[in-house]
Design a protein that fits this description.
38% of the residues lie in helices and 21% in strands. It is of the alpha/beta class. It has a domain of 174 residues: Rossmann fold. It contains ten helices and ten strands. Strand 7, helix 7 and strand 8 form a beta-alpha-beta unit. It is globular, with a radius of gyration of 18 Å. The strands form two sheets. Strands 6-7-8-3-9-10 form a six-stranded mixed beta sheet, with helices on both faces.
């Protein structure tokens, strides 16, 4: 759902104070990752020369077996895991070693898997804090909230409730809404359905469909393959820190695509078993 008064697909994003002004080039990927090497310990990479393009306006799901480096990959893109090689460009601008706290001003917002809301604070306070961190006048801070409440009317109705009293799906909604306060050009989510019941998983993915309809490019890590492929335009499968397969989601929903996915998942499991 787009905010009132704007056509569907035109969730207009304003540059936060301090943000660089960059123009999108027709045909240029929203996100371009090349030969990325990253990990927590020097000389022990988790991400091993992974490369990936995300096109403007698409949803790309990152799939793969446990331990494949999926979360480390998106965290490295978002500046949360040290990068030792390769490059990351967002709409043509090099953000490879941009500090995580500056990514929001580059147009990138990241929603972590856990501890992604301030539980004692109300819904409104969670969103107002995000707006305040971007600076500007009191009127500007209020104006940032209006399109988010319009996109998620449930949050507007529950704005006085502590976030910790919400369901898991509703807390994810708060986390995504807070990220959208920054009006990003790229939204990254790490395991948005983790720990949720099937009903709440459905609610979360309906919410993400609304976000895409608003024109935001989405990159998400997800273990729920069925839900991810139902939403995504394309999917990338990571195994041992590197992309092994990148295809349209529709192809991976076919019986042949499912067999290719299974082979990658099971092949990794067998390799781990033999190594152990």
């Amino acid at each position: 759902m787009s905010p009132p008064g704007r056509p569907k697909g035109e969730y207009r994003r304003a540059q936060p104070e301090g943000a660089p002004v960059t123009a999108s080039v027709p045909g240029q990927p929203a996100l371009q990752v090349r030969a990325l090497v990253a990990g927590y310990e020097p000389g022990l990479p988790i991400v091993r020369e992974a490369s990936l393009d995300v096109q403007p306006g698409e949803v790309l799901a990152i799939l793969g077996p446990n331990g494949a480096g999926k979360s480390s990959f998106v965290k490295a893109v978002a500046g949360l895991v040290p990068v030792s090689g390769g490059s990351v460009h967002l709409h043509g601008r090099d953000i490879t070693r941009t500090p995580a706290h500056r990514m929001v001003f580059e147009g990138l917002a990241f929603v972590p898997q856990t501890e992604n809301v301030f539980a004692p604070m109300s819904v409104a306070e969670n969103l107002e804090l995000a707006s305040a961190l971007l600076g500007g006048s009191a009127a500007q801070r209020r104006d940032r909230l209006a399109p988010v409440y319009a996109m998620f009317p449930d949050l507007a109705r529950q704005r006085r409730l502590p976030a910790g009293q919400l369901s898991g799906g509703q807390r994810q909604m708060v986390a995504v809404a807070r990220a959208l306060i920054a009006q990003p050009r790229l939204l990254i989510l790490d395991e948005p359905s983790a720990g949720l019941s099937p009903k709440l998983v459905g609610q979360v993915f309906e919410m993400l469909a609304q976000v895409r309809a608003g024109g935001v490019t989405v990159l998400l890590v997800e273990q729920n393959v069925k839900a991810a492929l139902a939403l995504a335009d394309r999917a990338a499968v990571l195994v041992e820190g590197r992309e092994r397969l990148v295809l349209p989601a529709a192809d991976l929903r076919s019986s042949e695509g499912a067999a290719r996915l299974a082979a990658l998942y099971l092949g990794h499991a067998q390799a781990v078993k033999e190594a152990g």
